[in-house]
Design brief:
This protein is an alpha+beta fold. The protein has helices spanning 4-11, 16-24, 49-63, 68-88, 93-99, 112-127, 131-141, 144-155, 174-183, 197-206; strands at residues 2-3, 33-36, 43-47, 101-103, 109-111, 160-164, 169-173, 192-195, 222-227, 230-238, 243-246. Helix 3 (49-63) crosses helix 4 (68-88) and helix 6 packs antiparallel against helix 10.
């Protein structure tokens, strides 16, 4: 455990108030404990090694000229890159999901793969009533290539979804769904989109994973419009159930920046 005085010395932060402010904003976790200071006068907070590590990362980016908000984004981005690299190197994603498990009093164990399967089945049952279709989707979802691609997208910060077209299942990013619908508009083919980001986040958090709570990669709303021989790109402003097409995004008001 690291006392506040040492935290300030190591990081170069001038005041303990900064740590208190960051802790209240949720930037760093609360101290492990508050106890009598080493000098014997007053009390001091004691922090974890992980908290010191994050504070040092923040201050390193601040010294490079980043704002606090920008520094936190960079740290989150670094974390995602490490997770992405780790998942990308997996040779057997199914085996990796099975490695850790939760023991129960009756002696049985539940792995991450079991949890993923049960969570996915709950979502599938809400969307699909036919038992055969449920079984077909679940069977394909547990294929090695689907699991690995799902994990790569998830660790990369994408809002990963599973798309079922009646015969086959793919794991992809949310924005690719609109592309699929547009490309196959003539066929009028129905698809089922299964959101999987939330269940994955809950599973990995349960096992101590530190994935971002929301996707870090989001689609930019744009459309392509064929106008004779030309194709024009328009930006799209999206509201509550409505949208508006712009040549360019309207400038934000000062209060919105």
């Amino acid at each position: 455990m690291i006392p506040t005085k040492e935290m300030l010395k190591e990081s170069g932060i001038k005041s303990a108030r900064t740590l208190d402010r960051w802790q209240k904003r949720g930037i760093i976790p609360p101290p492990l404990k508050v106890d009598v200071s080493p000098s014997g006068r007053g009390k001091t907070a004691y922090w974890s090694d992980e908290t010191l590590k994050k504070v040092l990362q923040i201050m390193n980016y601040r010294r490079q000229g980043h704002s606090l908000k920008s520094a936190l984004r960079r740290i989150e981005g670094d974390k995602v890159e490490r997770l992405f690299s780790t998942v990308k190197e997996l040779k057997d994603a199914t085996k990796a999901l099975k490695e850790k498990s939760i023991p129960f009093k009756n002696g049985s164990k539940l792995s991450r793969l079991d949890l993923l399967r049960s969570q996915a089945l709950q979502v599938i049952r809400r969307l699909v009533k036919d038992r055969r279709t449920q079984a077909a989707i679940l069977k394909q979802m547990l294929r090695e290539e689907i699991i690995k691609h799902t994990l790569i997208l998830f660790a990369g910060g994408y809002n990963v979804v599973l798309v079922w077209d009646g015969k086959s299942l793919i794991a992809t990013a949310d924005f690719f769904v609109s592309h699929m619908l547009s490309k196959n508009a003539e066929e009028g083919k129905a698809i089922i989109v299964i959101p999987i980001f939330g269940p994955l986040w809950q599973i990995f958090k349960l096992f101590g994973g530190e994935f971002p709570r929301i996707p870090t990669i989001r689609p930019r709303p744009q459309i392509l419009k064929d106008e004779g021989a030309d194709t024009t790109i328009y930006n799209v402003g999206i509201g509550e159930g409505i949208f508006k097409v712009y040549w360019d995004f309207p400038k934000a008001k000062e209060s919105e920046k």
